Amino acid sequence: MKKLILTEKPSVAKDIASALGAKSSQAKKGYFEIDDTYITWALGHLVEIDDEIAPRKWTLDNLPILPETFKYKVIERAAEQFKVISKLLKESKEVIIATDAGREGELIARLILMLNHYKGNVKRFWTSDALTKEVILRELNNLKDASEFDSLYYSALARSHADWIVGINLTRLVTVKAGSGVWSVGRVQTPTLKLIVDRYNEHKNFVPKEYYIIKATFGKDSLNYDGLLLLTKEQERYYKTLKDAIEEDEESDGAKTPSGSYFTPLLKESKEKIMQLLKDTKTATVKDVKITKRKENPPLLHSLTSLQREANRIYGYSSQRTLNIVQRLYEAYKCLSYPRTDSNYLGEDEETKKLVKKLLKTLTDKDMYSFLQKNVDKVGKRVFDSSKLTDHHALMPFAKLPEGASVEERNVYNLVLRRFIGAFMEPYEYAIITIKTQMLGEDKTPFNFLSNIKIETLTKEAYQKTYLSLYKDYKEDDIDHNHFKSLKPEDIVKKLSLEDIQKFTNPPPLYTEGTLLRIMEKLGLGTPATRASIIETLLERKYISRIDRSLLPTLKGEELIKSLKNSDVSKPEMTTNWESELERIYKERKSKEGYIRFMENIKNFVFDDIDRLKFVQMKKVPMATKKMIEFARSLAKSKNIKPPHSTDYETIKAFIEEHRPKDTENTKEENTTKSPTEKQISFAKALAEKLNQEIPQEAFVSTKTMSDWIKDAMKKTNYKPRIRRRK
Q1: May I ask the CATH architecture of the domain 210-297+428-504?
Q2: To the nearest 5 percent, what fractions of the chain are helix, strand and coil?
Q3: Which has more confidence, 650 or 497?
């Protein structure tokens, strides 16, 4: 009998086989065979809950659906690989689970073993380190008993069963109530949708508030500097500020006082009083001059979520697009470590530090490496902290990027490389000169003006050793620091000018994928591996749309959140609490008992929610056809305006009617106002396929624009229409 190593994906199986000295002849269809060891792989989840355990008919009378036991079936796309594993299990006396070191990895393996009724010995291969040959061989000699991870399995099982129960019950309830298409509800996707809807409403309903900043310019000899008025606590009780206006307005939820403690935002009446008091003042007195040294450490290494946020901010890449790119860099090019990580740290062991030095030597030139490798032993817990490791360590570049990589692959790879190299460079150091200058009003009231001036303290050579040199070129100060250093308390300076600057509060910004990922991570919504797919699911199900880089709710999305206002399923706090409970099942070793208690709570929650929501009235939201949506977007592009963010029928219809070219009496112009026919579009797609290109959006504006494009395409393809001969 043999032993079987079961991994989560082919690339990991290949790494383990390579570490064990596999030859090409030992690679079989779906597995490797090395002496007495089989190495095979799942393809992520191979089995799923069989929906046949739920009634086929979607009616309110069938709710709630609360199965006592769950049945599983093999996923159709994975049937072939499941057969391979089943055959190998029959020949194996021992299984080593080497799926990912985490909740989902544990579930993937346990369900495969369960469906095969495996009764042999089971061990666990567990590491968060990069799967180098040394790490693989070390951990194969340090296997743990699988029973040590029973609580992790029951935590994963509870998550899976809870998601199914919540999803199937509330999806069916809302769908039946809505009466138009499927309205999916999920434990993570629905709270995420609520975040987007709430932020959109805050942004849309925001009323700007006016405020003023008073700025003075002071001078002494050849030195000029600006200062902003900062009231004392006593003065704030007398003069009305923006903070007072926000507190008085009960509906200003989205309004915030501008951050910072260097100026006071004033209301108009207060600004006018102070400007009047200071208008004839000619001089001011320096009360304090302080130089504060500042230091900025390099940013943490990338997790998947932080990388997705940066790629969205810099390149506008969606989180799913970034995930797909890093997966290719990991699996195809093998130049990145395992990407689906939520950690920003590396392990503290000496082997990891040796690996880091080896990678730095490979990725940088000789002079750079000489400088960086000394810092590997100095950075400490800012980079190496085992207590902050999760299932996997932070993203690391494992090799140079191949020459044939695409532009987007190079962009994402370089973001990871920059963070990695920057982590072992020097912090950026600079200084802030703070000057407190006091002017007396005509009634002798003192008013303080604060100046904060940043000064560069590093030479160009020293700057090049800091992490910031990877982000910005060195720029010499055009400020003479010595002039500021010559200022002393009680020096008299001239008031060169005094002005009030009108400002308005800004609405809370709409979410981009980058900012949404940050709040999802903070609230514990989803995992690094699932957050991208959650956003894509909301887009696919027409709950949200992406306009430029902003995420906006559709009418359908707003209606869903409105209908669930009395349910906790749409509240992020509920998901956060559930995640904490699931984590406790694992961390506190609650095992099957923890699973049972958690599922009892979930079933009670669903039972109560069904009872509460059965009487909710929902507005029907019929969706526009694909053709209508394409036409609306082509109109928006031709007129250089934003397309509608909702894809429901009424919104799209209204947009088309407003922006399509108006009909005229001249019948020759009809072709410029009617949208392309199905026959035109079908023929155009065939031509586009021959040209290996997309049909441009502007071609969809009218039958005429589509006809013009078809004529041009026919010339390029040398298309000749077939002439039917009469018999």
Answers
A1: Distorted Sandwich (2.70)
A2: 50, 15, 35
A3: 497
For residue 710, the tally of other CB atoms under 10 A from its CB is 21
pLDDT at 534 > cutoff 70: yes
Q: What is the CATH number of domain 304-422?
A: 1.10.290.10
Is 467 annotated as catalytic? Answer: no
pLDDT digit string, tens, across residues 132-177: 788 899 999 999 999 999 999 999 999 999 999 999 999 999 999 9
Give mean pLDDT, residues 467-482: 85
Distances (CA, A) of 265 to 208, 217, 236, 247, 435: 14, 18, 10, 14, 19
d(CA 564, CA 557): 11
First to last CA, the chain: 75
Task: Find, among 597, 555, 552, the residue nearest to 578 by Cα.
Answer: 597
Q: What is the DSSP string of 26-52?
A: GEETTEEEETTEEEEE--S--EEE-GG
Q: Which residues contact 536 (CB under 8 A, 6 or more apart)?
A: 318, 320
Q: Report yes or no: 669 and 695 within 8 Å, Cβ to Cβ.
A: no
DSSP 630-669: HHHHHHHHHHT-PPPS--BHHHHHHHHHHHSPPP-S-GGG
Q: How far apart are CA 168 and CA 185, in angstroms?
A: 8
Q: Where are the domains of the chain?
A: 2-142, 158-205+510-613, 210-297+428-504, 304-422, 626-717
At 248, the pLDDT band (50, 70, 90 cuts) reads low
591 band by pLDDT with thresholds 50, 70 and 90: very high
CB 661 within 8 A of CB 631: no
158-205+510-613 CATH choice from 1.10.287.40, 1.10.10.650, 1.10.460.10, 2.60.120.290: 1.10.460.10
**pLDDT greater than 50 at residue 665:** no
The three-state DSSP-derived secondary structure of 455-505 is EECCCHHHHCCEHHHHCCCCCCCCCCHHHHHCCCCCCEEEEEEEEEEEEEC
Whether domain 2-142 has CATH 3.40.50.140: the reply is yes
Ranges 190-204, 292-306, 410-424, 646-660: which has the least confidence: 646-660
Say whether the peptide bond before residue 64 is cis (omega within 30 degrees of 0). yes
Q: Would you give the DSSP letter of residue 603?
A: H
pLDDT tier, 668 (very low <50, low <70, confident <90, very high otherwise)? very low
Catalytic residue, chosen from 338, 428, 463, 595, is 338
In whole angstroms, give the CA distance from residue 191 to residue 196: 9
Residue 363 has pLDDT above 90, yes or no: yes
Q: Taking a C-beta distance cutoff of 8 angstroms, is the pair 391, 341 a contact? A: yes
pLDDT at 259 over 60: no
The beta strand positions in 134-200, using DSSP E, are 144-145
